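[job 0412] stage=fold_complex status=start
inputs:
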Amino acid sequence: MAGPRPTIKDVAALAGVSKSLVSLAMRGSDRVAPASAAAIQSAANQLGYRPNAAARSLADRRSNTIGVLVQDLHNPISAEIIDGVQRQVRASGYHTMLVTGSEDAALEQSEIEKLLEFQVEGLVVIGHRMPAGVRDAITGDCPTVIITRAESEIAGLDSISNNDIVGARMAVDYLHGLGHRAIAHVTGGDNQVALMRKSGYEEAMISYGLAKNIACYEGAFTDEGGYRGTSAALASKYQHSAVFVANDLAAVGALAAVADQGLGVPEEISIIGYDGMALGGLRSIGLTTIAQPLASMGEDAAALLFQRINDPGRLPVHIELEPRLVIRNSTGVYHG
Amino acid sequence: MAGPRPTIKDVAALAGVSKSLVSLAMRGSDRVAPASAAAIQSAANQLGYRPNAAARSLADRRSNTIGVLVQDLHNPISAEIIDGVQRQVRASGYHTMLVTGSEDAALEQSEIEKLLEFQVEGLVVIGHRMPAGVRDAITGDCPTVIITRAESEIAGLDSISNNDIVGARMAVDYLHGLGHRAIAHVTGGDNQVALMRKSGYEEAMISYGLAKNIACYEGAFTDEGGYRGTSAALASKYQHSAVFVANDLAAVGALAAVADQGLGVPEEISIIGYDGMALGGLRSIGLTTIAQPLASMGEDAAALLFQRINDPGRLPVHIELEPRLVIRNSTGVYHG
DNA sequence: CTTGAAAATTGGAACGGTCCAACAAAGCGT
DNA sequence: ACGCTTTGTTGGACCGTTCCAATTTTCAAG
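[job 0412] stage=fold_complex status=done
writing structure:
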């Protein structure tokens, strides 16, 4: 239909008032006479007027927008965290601009760059890698919070994560309690989170006097990585009876690997994952796991961000939540 | 550090040139003398200058941004489609602004509203519901394409989907070929896509002379919905030997329901899903399904969008892709 | 040198809003 | 009717860019 979109000026002309008044009215100011307000409303509707966010954000010098970088959209836990972030961001009257990262650091950096050009007032990073460009963002005065990764010394950067070391220990504790001794670990790569889960595993094994049983197989935070690592574990000369897999997505791959070897879960091999993704709760998967409170982590992260927006100078905050063991069907007692 | 962010003016002052020249240089024009370009670059770096997208988009009268509305971020197929969309959007030099929808129509509409205020140049809707607000968007001159839902008569709206009726028929064909006769269907709600899959099922059943065996159980496009519907199917007096579930996510729930009844898949019950989500391919799930080419649908959708952006007047295009049967472990021959 | 064309640079007017100080109108007590 | 406050309304400057016409500089040819 349209030609150029109607502006505030067009509305003003039609309603027979000044553009300033329209501006006030559109934002619901109470200084506008009811009659004028009505006239303006009807003029706006008639023209199909819609405020121009670019102009507004230019004049305001604020965008009312929070940028979200999701490093791995394919991991279902991302969706769960995003839900929480969105809920909180919306509740605060802001909007969300979401971009996806990738293994390609340069691309990821350019995505952050874009967010900053849009003058986002804050940045939420969901993932375990520290993206190039985040430092720039922060020193460029953009409050940032990172989820699922602990970070405490960088000024202007808050973080929220669970205690991966404790969580990994819980996994081993639980398996040990079931009688397992030859407990393998399939790793999640060399990012900080994966490394902490690995240390937790090693520490726990050592504390049970099982140092010699420590066996790490290289995996990744993907289904494929879990499959690969677990296949290697099963093919090894050690007779592992249980595998602690670095995250749930990989653990689903691990289940596949076990099945492919013709072994039964949990009769012959117990599998425990990490994260607590909702999908793992389905009976057809039934994955025992160390769960993080994903949605509330998202909410808390956004809350943290708004606190920092209101008080930019404050010291970095790191919230660390306790993970919790969720027992399902992929683990069972050891019968040698 | 910062105080107010540096603007093009600050860069100009430092480099000793006019702001116009900086503007040119920042966009890589070849009309700028190499010496000036270098001076400007270095001034920009020194100040940490970053263009203001709001100002640019205001002056340009274009945002260089495509809005994406994802109705169900929790369905893993969304991530796969998004990947495709992003790839194509990036390749065209645009950016992506992603928002999530929800069951709440009002909220969804307001999200679209936001995208439009941001002057997005196009809109991609991923999902099977037609969101309130999309019509406004289109009549407001915003090119739109909708993915996974067929739509062909609305001017300005392109769509891309697979042929759900054919796909559903394929599912029944395959199960029939395996010897199944008492084939149940767990529905995906009352959205258009779910209804088409249901019709395809019914048509196929009728064409095999199995009209009396038609049995639909109410489900939803969620794991929980699949669980519920399948549980009902198994509890019914009909001795179903196979279930065609409306989508993969629900089919995973269906697998759980079958397991909970202590039945074996595929020995006693065959399950077939729809969509072809990557997760279903894992051996631990091993879901037989009717697959759509998700990533390429995303790419094609974005491509369609750009075509319409360049030629707004053209007639609505609907691309319909053929689904394809992917056989895995959740289906087997009937042995009555 | 001069000259004209090409190359490089510039100032100022948009873009569509918000904000502010100033002004007009209306209400009110006396 | 009188100031005085309160309530409504307005024009114009400004936000940080891009664009354009106009200007200055450079340079090769005569």
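[job 0412] summary: Residues 64-163+293-321 of chain A form a domain with the Rossmann fold fold (CATH 3.40.50.2300).
[job 0412] exit 0
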